[in-house]
């Protein structure tokens, strides 16, 4: 995606965009990140990269990374499914219990990185206001439509040069007022994207 004018706002927390080559400065993980710990009660407004801990914890359970860095079950299929006491993660600053940086309640930490990403997203929207923009929504369900779906509808309605596209299984819908500038595809996102990729290579 290098050189393309795009930005990704996502409610996913699994690093899939980064792992497939999307540029980190063009990503906004609104609901958190599996790759980060935070103090469980959120009282310290910081997050902590947990990659080193994950590697140690997986090795302690006898999982083996392959050439792509994906952990596999060993040939004897014997895994511990537990970690030693000394690997139980704690907050690096004060030793308090930690949890994943996920928005599950009001303890969620929006750290400096989160706010920087939010500002980059806002700047992207402002710099492209009124221009030809494709608001592409993939797989947004009913849990958090106010983060992506509803804003995309509103921004498409406000910008006559914008197009809204929705790829969703059984929930590919749009408001009547933007229907003429909308593309709604009802289907499995993975299969549809594979088909589009094949078509682009023809």
Describe this structure as you would to a colleague.
The chain is of the alpha/beta class. Strand 5 and strand 6 form a beta hairpin. It is 26% helix and 21% strand. It has a three-stranded antiparallel β-sheet with strand order 4-3-7, with no helix packed on it. A three-stranded parallel β-sheet has the order 8-9-10, with helices on one face. The radius of gyration is 20 Å and the shape is globular. The relative contact order is 0.12. It has helices spanning 16-19, 51-60, 112-127, 149-158, 189-201, and strands at residues 8-10, 27-29, 32-39, 47-49, 64-65, 71-72, 98-102, 134-138, 163-168, 182-186. The model has no long low-confidence stretch (mean pLDDT 93).
Give me some keywords for this one:
21% strand; 3-stranded antiparallel beta sheet; 202 residues
Protein topology:
Elements: E1 8-10, H1 16-19, E2 27-29, E3 32-39, E4 47-49, H2 51-60, E5 64-65, E6 71-72, E7 98-102, H3 112-127, E8 134-138, H4 149-158, E9 163-168, E10 182-186, H5 189-201
